[in-house]
Amino acid sequence: MNAPRLAASLLALASLLGAGSGGVVAQDVASFQAPTQAQPQGASFSAAMAPAPASTPQQSGRILLQFRSSSSVVGATVTLGDLVASENPLPPELTALPVAVSPAFNANRVVSRNAAEAILLGHPEFQAYVVLGADSCVVDRPGRNVSAAELPAILLPELQRATQGSGDVRIEEVPRVQGGLIPTGRIGAQVQLGDGALNHPWATATVKYYSASGELVGTSTVSFRWSWQRTAWVALRPITPGEAYNPIDFTETAVDGIKLGGNFIAKLPDPGELVAAHLIASGAVLKPSDLAPKKIVQKGQSIQVTYRQNNIRISMKGLSLQDGARGETIAVKNTTSQKTIYAKVVGTQEVEIVQ
What we know:
By secondary structure, the chain is an alpha+beta fold. It is built from 7 helices and 24 strands.
């Protein structure tokens, strides 16, 4: 077969294979040289004699990134993940690469594909990635104002946490919200209650908004009115100082948790060595300071003094120099030596020398 006929055969083969599918292209045909050894008369051209088709990026280990023509962002930085798409999951380190500064809220800016490629060139660990697609991407950043109607759902969980989930907490109204725009889309919120918020029905809070990556994207200052109804224990009758505590003298009722703050007993203690520390009026809410341990050793009382060490136990008589409740350490006089020692109250008229 002469050279002109061979070239024509190659062109025909190229059209059958198709240049777009990685087959033989026109320049391949032009540069192909016929074999130096003459082919037998009547021999036909074999595809095996043609140059091997060029590999696609996927075949050569390359990973294609499709550059978008438009994108919306939340944060203050346009990242590579905002600009490209891929059929396969991309590593977070790649998508987090910063490419440009985000536009202002409700504005846009154009980011070129060249800018993304330049970022990849600066990171050799991502050299397998190739950016194709649009020449540029129009990036916008939609923004909006925070409405008073959506803030109760943001504030309520923090108030419930601060009140330890006890009682009925409600946001009654949110008359004022101050702050700039926040991104449109899914964002998180963190609430910081103002000083004294739990002690007054009118309170303030600072709400900070975060993107999915943890970037601060907005802040609001909020004024609100709230209520807290919970249960407490009130006295059914007057209880005199020193009178033994008895749970039947109290009943559970609804109270204003904001007025009381945390200064009340939420759960009645079990009956034991407790007495009224002072007069508890009828209808008064029971507070921790209303009850005190009963003094089971009185000053000037003759008491049993015990000393223990390993398996040795020595008992003697003593004189109490102080009143004492169970677990308290008091001064005691040894009636034999007349020395003052210190011992822990362990029972009625009984103490144990402190080691």
